[in-house]
Amino acid sequence: MYISDIALADFRNYEREVVSFSPGINILTGKNGQGKTNLVEAVAYLATLGSHRVSSDNALVRQSANAAVIQARTYRGTSPTTVQVEIYAGRANRARINRAPAKPADIVGIVRCVLFAPEDLGIIRAEPAIRRAFLDDLMIQLRPRMAGVRAEYNKVLQQRAALLRSLSSAAKQGQNVSLENPVLDIFDAQLAKLGGEITAARAEIVRQLRPFVAEYYNLVSGTQSGARIDYKASANSGFFSLPGPERISAEPELAAAITNNDAELAQPARATQRLQQLLQERRAQEIERGQNLVGPQRDDLQLSLGQLPAKGYASHGESWSYALALRLAEWQVLRADDSGEWSGDGEPILILDDVFAELDGHRRRRLAELVASAGQVMITAAVGDDLPATLQGKTFRIHAGRVHPESEIETNSAPVTNRAAARSEGTQSEGTRSEGTRSEGTRSEGGE
Predict the structure, then answer these.
(1) Where are the transmembrane segments (predicted)?
(2) Which of 40, 151, 186, 312 is the most buried (most CB within 10 A)?
(3) What averages of pLDDT result for each successive group of 10 residues across the chain (448 residues)?
(4) Which fold has domain 1-112+346-432?
(5) Which segments are annotated as binding site?
C-alpha cells in the first residue's frame, strides 16, 4: 500500500498544506524545526490514532486553532480509499472513510506504517512501559479490535485498583475485610478475560518477531551477536519462569521450552485461565498493598544480546542496531499479515525519521540496502549528505510548515528561488507544543 496524497489543516505547524507522495522512496529535507517530523507524524497517526512523541492529542492542534485535520488518499493495488480524521483538543475526535462519517477506531487498519525515530532508543534503554507500547501498537495494527479490548481492560483495571485501595484502607483501620468479595470476583473475571486476550496477542507477536529481530540485527550491525527477544508475562508466574539471557545462550535446550510455553500462552483461553488462577492466589496480597499485582500491565519484553540483557549493557551503536532490528522486524510481520477488512497489498509504509544522521557509515549503507525494496518509504534528514548516495527518490524541501518538491524548486524562476532561500533564514519550531515523549502509561494502561 502507499499514500498518494495527504492534506493537513492546523496540524502542528502546518496551517494548510497538501503533499503528493510517490510509491518507493520519498526524501524530506530541511532544517530542524521546520516540520519534517510533523509531516511523518501525521502519516503515522492515521495508522494508530496516536503520536510517537506525545501522549495527548492536544499538542497536535496548531496553536489558536479549534481542530487539526489529516486527510489522505491511500492505495492498495489500484483501489483508492480516502481517510480523514479531525483531532480536537479536549473532546472526541471524528473520522470519515470515503467522505462517509465513521468512528475513529474504524480507520485503524486502512493505513499501515512502521515509524523508526530517535525516540525508539527508549525501547532498548527505558522502562518496561515503553516496550509494552511497542508491542501494543503493533498488536492494534494487526488486529484493530484489540484497541477496544485494551481500552476496556484499562477501564476495569482502574475500577479494580480503586476497590483494592478502599479495601486496603479499611483493613488498615482495623475493619474486618473478607477475601470473599463478589464485586472483586466480577472484576477478576473481566480482568482475566480481557488481560488473557492481550497477553495472548502479545505472546504471538513476540513469536513472530523473534526470528526477524535476530536476522535484522545481524544484517544492520554486521555481527553475529545473538539478538533475541522473549515475552516476560506475569501470566507465567508459577507456571513458567523465563530464564535470563545467560542461561538461554548457554543452554540451547531452553529455547524449545520457551517456544512451547509461548505457544500455550498465545492461546487466549489458556492465558485467561492462568490469570484467573493468579488473581485468586494473590488476592490477599493485592488487598494488603491496595494495588493490582497481576496482569499484562506488569509484563515486559526481554531483549538479549548473547548472554547479556541489552538494557544496561548494549553500547550506543548496538542499541541503535537493536532498535532498528525491532522496527524492521515489525515491518516484516505486517508485510506478511493479510487479515482483516482492509487486507490485500497491506505492505506498511516505512518511515525513517532523522535516523541516518545517528548511524555510522556501515549502518547507513546496510539500512539503505534493506529499505530499497519497500513499497513506500518516507525518510527525513536535515541535510542530504546524511543519506547514502544509493538512496534516490522523490525529494521535498520543508520550511516553516511549507513543503516544496525538489522539481518545483529547481524549475522555478530565480526570484522564487530567492524567496525560498530568504524564508530559510528564519525558523518556526515544530516542537513548541510537543515537549517530551509519549507516556505509554497514560495512553495504553490503566491505574494499578
Answers:
(1) none
(2) 40
(3) 96 96 96 95 93 88 94 91 94 95 92 93 96 95 93 97 96 90 96 97 96 94 89 83 73 77 90 95 96 96 92 92 96 83 72 90 89 93 89 94 77 37 38 40 52
(4) Rossmann fold (3.40.50)
(5) 30-37
